[in-house]
Specification:
This protein has 214 residues and is of the alpha+beta class. 33% of the residues lie in helices and 26% in strands. The protein has helices at residues 10-17, 26-33, 38-59, 124-130, 133-141, 145-161, and strands spanning 3-9, 68-70, 82-84, 91-97, 100-106, 110-116, 184-185, 188-194, 198-204, 208-212. It comes from Streptomyces virginiae (Streptomyces cinnamonensis).
Length: 214
């Protein structure tokens, strides 16, 4: 069975999720409440609701009956790679950016990332730190280098979330340049999406289905 990824604007996801207080744990609600920006709070709530909706659709179970637990292994703070308390064998991942959220669920490891495109130019110092020479050449040749950079970034971030790399060494993840097929990396399937507002990617061993909300 193929895995499932869901993504969409924060407002559309919150509208589809209903009352998030019925979905999220007290810990998650407290984490959201500690964020200063109302937009950041909404993005956090939407992402944590969406990962339940995504896993629920995959498993054929109500989202209200799924508990998301996070721990990093290095401290006692509730962050890090998420997992489902009721279905620990199911891989889940979530991401949020300014005004957009994404989530994924699969039978095995899965990682998802999403980034708002926004305006402005590429931070070339950052690009040089995280991209290979081939990737940099492709960025310089692209008509929209910022979006092209973010497409590479979400691919790398999704792979980091499945545990095959770290953000300390993103340039070592020599992922295919966006537009080159097939979009795979050492056996991992990369499913891209996005356009003018946001771009995203899911990494998994298995085939993934994508549904965009809103």
């Amino acid at each position: 069975m193929a895995g499932l990824a869901l993504a969409g604007p924060t407002g559309a996801v919150l509208a589809a999720a209903g009352d998030v207080r019925e979905l999220l744990t007290r810990t998650e609600l407290d984490r959201a409440g500690a964020l200063r920006s109302a937009g950041d709070r909404d993005d956090f709530l939407a992402a944590h609701a969406l990962v339940r909706l995504c896993a629920g659709r995959l498993l054929g179970r109500p989202a209200q009956g799924l508990t998301v637990v996070q721990s990093c292994g290095s401290c006692d703070r509730p962050h890090g790679r998420p997992r489902l308390a009721e279905a620990p064998g199911t891989g889940v991942s979530l991401a949020h950016t300014r005004g957009w959220v994404a989530a994924a669920a699969a039978d095995g490891p899965v990682g998802v990332d999403v980034e708002a495109v926004g305006a402005g130019d590429v931070d070339w110092r950052t690009a040089q730190a995280v991209c290979t020479e081939e990737e940099l050449a492709a960025l310089r040749a692209d008509t929209h280098p910022r979006r092209a950079f973010l497409r590479q970034w979400v691919r790398k971030e999704s792979l980091v979330k499945v545990g095959v790399g770290t953000l300390d060494e993103p340039a070592r993840l020599d992922v295919p340049v966006y537009g080159q097929e097939p979009p795979r990396w050492h056996g991992w399937r990369l499913l891209d999406w996005g356009g003018a507002e946001a771009v995203g990617c899911v990494a998994a061993r298995e085939e993934m289905r994508l549904r965009l909300l809103g």
